[in-house]
Amino acid sequence: MNLLLWLRRFRHRCGYGIHSPWVYTLVSDVILQRMPYYAYDSLPDVEGWRRKDLQLLLRLANHFQPDEVEVKGYGKLSADWLKAGRREFALSYTEGMPPLITLKRSGGAVCLIMHDCRSAQWREARAEQDCVSLDLHYLGLIYRGLPLPPQHHKICYT
């Protein structure tokens, strides 16, 4: 990550400037978690993913507790990381572009995980109403179906 980009995101490095308690907890306890989880060492690396991002997939699945997961455009190995976070959920794979991971929970809450925050798909998904989006530079997270006002946060996740 270049220095200018890091400086622009530095003020949000530990959740500073986030006023929503739910988003602050997500950033501080899930995204920026430094403690190793039980399954990190036993899971394989996946081509095209940084190990740090794969560990975040595990933590997101553990935190969000999805009932249904759709993996589009990624290999089956990335789903192994999600299964380590929550063992019992309905899993479906589809081929195609752009790559996308969708975590769905009963009650209508949805978490979208995108690999590129600079794509047109990211801007399109963010533009919809009633979403909370987090730009992690390498990954983008969009939450829908939560009783929160629309928000967008840029997080220093290097």
Please provide a written account of the structure:
The N and C termini lie close together (7 Å). The chain has one domain. A hairpin with a 5-residue loop joins strand 3 (100-104) and strand 4. The protein contains five helices and seven strands. Helix 3 packs across helix 4 (76-85). The chain has 158 residues and is an alpha/beta fold.
Largest sheet: 7 strands, mixed
Helix content: 25-40%
Mean pLDDT value: 81
Number of helices: 5
Structural class category = alpha/beta
Give the SSE string: HHHEHEEEHEEE
Terminal Cα separation, in Å? 7 Å
- Describe the strand arrangement of the main beta sheet, using strand numbers: 2-1-3-4-6-5-7
Strand fraction equals: 15-25%
Short description:
Helices cover 32% and strands 22% of the residues. It has 158 residues and is of the alpha/beta class.
Name the features.
158 residues; alpha/beta; seven-stranded mixed beta sheet; 5 helices; 7 strands
Write the layout of secondary structure elements.
Layout: H1 3-9, H2 21-31, H3 51-64, E1 68-72, H4 76-85, E2 90-94, E3 100-104, E4 110-114, H5 120-127, E5 131-135, E6 140-144, E7 151-154
Helix pairs in contact: 3-4
